[in-house]
Amino acid sequence: MTSVLVIGGAGYVGSHACKAFAQKGWRVTVFDDLSAGSRDAVKWGDLIVGDIADPAAVRGALSARRPDIVAHFAALTSVGDSVSDPGAYYRNNLAGTVNLLDAIAAAGPCPVIFSSTAAVYGVPEQSPIPEDHPKRPINPYGHGKLMVEQVLADFETAHGMRHVALRYFNAAGADPDGEIGETNDPATHLIPIVLHAARDPDFAFSIFGDDFDTPDGTCVRDYVHVTDLARAHVAAAEHLLAGGASMALNLGGGAGASVLEVIGAIERELGRPIPRRLGPRRAGDPPALVASAQKAREVLDWRTTYGLKDIVATAAAWERKTRGL
Ligand code: UDP
Prior knowledge:
Layout: E1 3-7, H1 12-23, E2 27-32, E3 46-49, H2 55-65, E4 69-72, H3 79-84, H4 86-107, E5 112-117, H5 140-159, E6 163-168, E7 170-172, H6 190-199, E8 206-208, E9 220-221, E10 223-225, H7 226-241, E11 247-251, E12 257-258, H8 259-270, E13 277-279, E14 288-289, H9 294-300, H10 308-322
Parallel strand pairs: 1-2, 1-4, 2-3, 4-5, 5-6, 6-11, 7-10, 8-13, 9-14
Antiparallel strand pairs: 9-12
Bound molecules: uridine-5'-diphosphate (UDP).
Uridine-5'-diphosphate binds near residues 205, 206 and 219.
């Protein structure tokens, strides 16, 4: 039976990937420090509570489970926070990952799936963005993820560890069965923030700028359903387990939605207007990020199956179930 060690498997994308791995019949072990993830999200496989910054804890998990593959999700994920507190982002997302990779190399290397990001591209010169587009991140979050991609390449040269770096565009939505969803409190991403504003009239929610060079002036992003992302991890794991080459792949739908379009979709889903105000631009926000998902289609036969309407509907259902709407 395939054994997969899921670092950060109690978090948002990680927990959805655990469900997808378990549906394949694989043995799932979650390693998570529960700083952002939650014990309740570990519904598939066992939980080892530990921190990637702790070499002994990582070594212990690897020797106890002897994984065939490691999927690494553990990271701080807020672009805005990375600008105000870069040290935390480089310590956790870069240094923590180097520590993890050292332990994997020492344990007898196995392939790694890494959660990378569209933020590696910075302000894109073309849209949709192909994987070979220049990488010039404009915030510490993107810089740290790009550095890890380089570290992974260097670990392959030194230790033969193959990897797939999956560059997520905007992960969104919740498990269609309602078993798991995004639990960050306070909410850190647009859709949960708008849903928070829908249930709490005192919650001050701002659109971060409406003077970008985009069709309606608000930022455009490629929202991709978390269950689609989860399926891509299974496909990437199968690719690596079959001896496939290392690579970086965009995960997005190839279509963008503006902040105003997302708010409109949520208003239609809930059948009521959502109070919002206009605020200044947020530091580190590129105007538009839309994926070319052609390579993932060619290599992994992966494509998105959920659109914005499904993303919003599943996110709203999760919000209703966990917080009330
Ligand atoms: N955004 C916004 N108001 C908020 C949070 C986000 O206008 O309170 C915008 C943000 O500027 C970006 C988009 O929504 O254009 C998605 O932001 P999010 O933080 O969800 O993801 P990111 O694109 O930063 O990874």
